[in-house]
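Thread: quick sanity check before group meeting

JM: Hey all, I'm pulling together slides for Thursday and realized we never actually wrote out the predicted structure for the chain we discussed last week. Dropping the sequence here so it's in one place. If anyone has concerns about the input, flag it before I start.
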Amino acid sequence: MSQARIKSLEALVKKLKQQLAKAKERSCTESLTGLPNHRGMELEAKRALAQANRSDKPLSVLFVDLDFFKKINDTYGHSVGDTVLRRFAAFLRKKVRKSDVVTHPGGDEFVVILPATDLAGAHYIADKISDALLRERFTWRNLKLSISVGAASTLEGFKTFQGLKSLADRRMYTSKRKRNGGR
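JM (edit): ok, ran it. Output follows.
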C-alpha cells in the first residue's frame, strides 16, 4: 500500500473517530437545555460515585422539580414552557459549584450531582437555589417559578446512584406535598 493511501486512510480514521466522539456527546446531551440527559446523567453519576469511593468522600444528589410546570405549558403554551426550562437550566448552573453536575433527565425534573458533599451541604445548596429563585423574576409575563427539592447522600448508606436518586425523588415529593398543602 502506498504512503499516500496510508495517510488518506489515517485521515479518514481520525475524522471518523471525531464524528463518533461528537455523536456520543450528542446522545448524552438534552438538546433543549444543553444539559446531560438521562443517559448522560447516568454516566456522570457513575464517574462521580467512582470518584467518591476512591477519595472516601460523600456524594449527594438533589432531585429538583418545577412546581406547576404543566400549568405554565397549559396557560402560556409549550414554547414558553421550553423557554422556562432553558432559562431555569441556565439559572441552576449558575447557582451550583463548578464541580457539581446539573442534569435534565426529562420533563420538569432536574438532578444535580454534588461531589464531596454531605447531606447538610446538599440541603444548604438546595436552600440557596430556592432562595435565589424566590428573588428571580423571569422577564416575560412576570412569571414566578417555585421548586420542590429532595436530597440524598451516600452517607445514608446508599452505594448506588439509583438508590440515591430514588430517595431524593421521594423526598422531593414529600417537600412538594408540604408546599402544596398536602396535595
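AS: nice. The two ends are 73 Å apart (CA to CA). The mean pLDDT is 88.
JM: adding both to the slides.
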